[in-house]
Amino acid sequence: MVQSVGIWFANEAKKVVGDPESTTQSLGKARINKPGKQWNKRLVAAELHAKRLSEIYQQLIQEYDGDGQASLRTYSSALSTLIGELTTDELAECQETAEMWNREPPPKEVQQKSVDVIFHHRQNDSS
């Protein structure tokens, strides 16, 4: 099993860095060998408009009437609703911010929020 995982990572690394001797047929879109989160306008909109997204999300959960658990798609639906409510200028700002955050690290507050979420998730898994 460990050997299989090692082989898989070696093959994926060739794709990421563009090894010319790689025998894969199609690599699709060129991937950037850059660790970390890849930002897009939806992720940035969720970050910049977190308060509004939270309000929409809570509304969707309250509207849900089932066995007490909201659908797994509730957050995605809330984010789609938020994107639909944003103006063209706000969407353009989100796209520009995503491109900027992919070139250089996002602000410290955004980085810390990501770390807090991961740390909190790992604490809950270990208990």
Describe this structure in words.
The chain has 127 residues and is mainly alpha-helical. The chain has a domain at 38-106. The chain has six helices and no strands. The protein has helices at residues 2-17, 41-48, 50-63, 74-85, 88-103, 108-126. The radius of gyration is 19 Å and the shape is extended. The model has no long low-confidence stretch (mean pLDDT 78).
| Number of H/I helices | 6
Low-confidence stretches: none
Q: Would you tell me the structural class of the helices and strands?
A: mainly alpha
Assign an overall shape.
extended
Largest sheet: none
Strand content: under 5%
Care to count the β-strands?
Answer: 0
Helical fraction:
55-70%
Radius of gyration from CA coordinates: 19 Å
How many angstroms separate the termini? Answer: 28 Å
Mean pLDDT reading: 78
Provide the succession of SSEs: HHHHHH
Task: Give the topology, please.
Elements: H1 2-17, H2 41-48, H3 50-63, H4 74-85, H5 88-103, H6 108-126
Helix pairs in contact: 2-5, 3-4
Summarize the structure.
By secondary structure, this protein is mostly helical. It contains six helices and no strands.
